[in-house]
Amino acid sequence: MTWDAATSARLRKAGRAIILYALLIGLAIVVILPISWILASSFTTRETVWKNALPFSWRAFFPEEFTLDGYRAIFEKDFGAALLNTFFLGAVTVILGIAVGAMSGFAFARLKFRWKNFLFALVVFSFMIPGDLTIIPSFVLVRDLGWLNTWQGLIVPGLANGIVIFLFRQFFAEIPQDLIDAPRVDGATWLQVFIRIILPVSKPALISAGVILFLGQWNNFFWPLLVAPVPELRVVQVAVSIIGIEQNVNLWEQMFASSTLAMLVPVLLILPFQRYYVGGILGSGLKG
Amino acid sequence: MLKSFSLDRWTPVFFLAPAFILLLVFRYVPIVLGFEEALYTNSLSQAGARKFVGLANFLAVYEDPVVWGSFKTTLIFSLVVNPLQVGLALLLAELVNARVPGIAVFRAIYLVPIAISAPVTAIAWGLALDPNYGLINGIFRSIGLPRQPFLQSPDQALWSIIGIISWIGVPYWSLFFLAGLQGISSDVLESARVDGASSLRIFVSIKLPLLRRIIAFVLVTDTVVNFTLFAPVYLLTRGGPQLSTHLVMYEAYRRGLVYGDIGIASAIVSVLLIVVIVFVAIEFIILRPQH
Question: Most buried among A17, A123, B239, B257, by the most CB within 10 A?
Fold first, then answer.
């Protein structure tokens, strides 16, 4: 009797584990399948690119005839320049965006001033309104500033990021008061405290903010499409979309190759920094 | 003692000025500018043709069947995509909250779509959903399903776009729910389990009510974000076929930046902005710390 009960309990547990893993694996396939197909197809010639997709064969996930034609072709078309442009934009945005965000996050976490709650509400409100919603008047503004087709048009409007400010405020608020009091008693200015004491102990917040700012710039599409249409300032998402849609012929292997590169960078960035990235995303919503 | 720490009144200004100058100029001025532009006829191509027309642009928004239709399509789209994403994200979070061997690997895999941009996701899925060559129809055929037109059919295009963006959206929003689930005290769950409650019962009667605030936050934020969906429509369907994917943001882009009618485009976006501000106000109320 007890043996039967124990067995059926164990069976039920095993059954539940099988269902759980089946679901987990099924969903993992939904994620991996398109990515691995894109990756494999990017190393295939234009003639064979669709061969194993329809009718479908598992060989679709391996290059039919390995070639770098797709990659060679996109690099001949300045895709490399688009990659460099985007890395440059990302780097500048990370440095300046962290400076701007950390400074105001510090003020909100550690300084006393009037209208603090109101000003902080302005920060929160700014990231609850999606930037794309005001993209047309923003375009008009940047055009009137004479910033169309300039680096500053691509960089400056996105530097003050509400989520990043929020993130730094949360993090700085947790830093022990003693760490700040001691140098203040010794006569250090707030700027010295900020640079010498606060920033060095804030690596997790700096990484989170850096990843968020970099990915924001790397994955940005609508804004650069509007404000910087010239080829010299082309960014990676726009370059992919141009290969993808604005050709008269279907350059399949190039579409696969450019999509692969555009995917690869954020995926390689996010995996080692998972914890920081997730922490950064969550910081924006929950603890408010 | 504390008095000696009293602040130089310019210190906060120094720390806040860069962020607030940028926020005001590039986030708040455009909001005001958008409402203002909506009151003028303004053509990108004819400089100097700017003329005050009051609410005429809003009337045009209401009377133009294509513009008004884009609002209706967006409404239907919102009513489907947001509950769908929130529901699936909740289930995904519950699934990856299981403490089983290898779960960290699955969590890492599900994080991958979040890092990939909407344009690249759209292009990749557009290739996979190609009616004549695509991988998905290949898989359909090998399991005996008929070939589907997906993005090329007025009946399926909007659904295809909903599926494509949910590939990013569901794992993204599930992060919030997972954090919420992990914050539930294990004592509560353990005592329910001892009382003989099933997993389903625990999920519905204990976990969901405790996640109420997070669900509200995600639902509102997801709705607001999806109002501005642009890249997949621009890249895959251009609003078609037969306007079936003609969402508001794409219509605003087409009017404002393809046809150069900034006035109408601003009126379209202003209507959306008012709706969003109402939503965000509701969100502020929901998320106000409860004492």
Answer: A123
pTM for the model stands at 0.89
Task: Give the confidence band of A63 by pLDDT, cuts at 50, 70, 90.
Answer: confident
CB atoms B115 and A269 under 8 Å: yes
Cα dihedral A222, A228, A233, A239, rounded to 10, equals 40
* Distance in Å, alpha carbon of A244 to nearest chain B alpha carbon: 7
ipTM of the modeled complex: 0.88
Q: Identify the CATH class of B30-287.
A: mainly alpha
pLDDT of A287 higher than 50: no
CA distance A119 to chain B (A): 9
Compute the count of residue pairs across chains A and B with CB atoms less than 8 Å apart. Answer: 272
Considering only CB atoms, which chain A residues are within 8 Å of B273? 129, 133-134
Nearest to A52 by CA among B141, B87, B209, B19: B141
- Domain edges within chain B: 30-287
B62-111 tens-digit pLDDT: 999 999 999 999 999 999 999 999 999 999 999 999 888 999 999 999 99
pLDDT at A285: 55
| Token pair 């001691």: residue | A182
